[in-house]
Amino acid sequence: MQIGVLAIQGDYEAHKARLEELGAAVTLVRKPEQLDAIDAIVIPGGESSTFLNFLAENGFLEKLRKFVRTKPVFGTCAGAILLAKDVENPPQESLGALDICIRRNAYGRQVDSSIHEAETELAGGPLEMVFIRAPKIVSTGKDVEVLAIEGSDPVLVRQGKVMAATFHPELSRDTRVHQEFLKLVRNGHKPK
Ligand code: GLN
């Protein structure tokens, strides 16, 4: 199993380190043809509009769109924005792999960054969540499972092979979210 981490921009090194800590083989993905050699991909945080500018070159966006239709993917923050079916504030293009509507920079400037603990469906008690200019999931389709809620907002969701978090699990010491993704990669579908 080879896990790709999209390494165009953002905190891809932290994801790589976390996945390697959990025993995964990781490839940093910078070119569309690298998608042919991986089994799953992580799309990190960063700036979703910058990702889109970069992905516009060499058919990268189209190739990634096809990839996430069939292979496991985990998007954090900007990555979650890229995966969403609908994006607000402002509307922008996306991969449309996850049936959610998401609003960029939804928590205002005064709470640009914050750390919370919240309950999660993942075993092992409350989860630390680092939010950085986070988007808000404003609605979820019927096939989307909510794995964690902070306040009244879903912050960790899953639909089939697609997982997304509006926070940054790669910046906390807790490894459960990445473990959950690796389970999904191994099982090829929703982990039991
Ligand atoms: N604010 C960024 C965006 O809208 C996301 C921030 C992040 O990834 N930490 O794309």
Count of helical regions: 5
Largest sheet, strands/sense/barrel: 7 strands, mixed
Low-pLDDT runs: none
* Strand order, sheet with most strands: 2-1-3-4-12-11-10
Terminal CA distance: 19 Å
Q: What's the CATH class, please? A: Alpha Beta
Number of strands: 12
Instruction: Round the mean pLDDT to the nearest integer and report it.
Output: 95
Q: What level of helicity do the residues show?
A: 10-25%
**CATH-derived topology:** Rossmann fold
Bound molecules: glutamine
Shape: globular
How much strand? 25-35%
Radius of gyration: 15 Å
Molecular structure report:
- This protein has 192 residues and is of the alpha/beta class.
- It has a single domain (2-187), classed as Class I glutamine amidotransferase (GATase) domain (Rossmann fold, 3-Layer(aba) Sandwich).
- It contains 5 helices and 12 strands.
- It has helices spanning 12-21, 48-55, 60-70, 78-83, 176-187, and strands at residues 2-6, 25-29, 40-43, 73-76, 84-88, 98-103, 113-118, 127-132, 136-140, 145-150, 153-159, 162-165.
- The strands form 3 sheets. A 7-stranded mixed beta sheet has the order 2-1-3-4-12-11-10. The chain has a 3-stranded mixed beta sheet with strand order 5-6-9. A two-stranded antiparallel ribbon has the order 7-8.
- A hairpin with a 2-residue loop joins strand 10 and strand 11.
- The longest helix is centred in the C-terminal third of the chain and has 12 residues, at 176-187.
- It is globular, with a radius of gyration of 15 Å.
- 42% of the residues are buried.
- The mean pLDDT is 95.
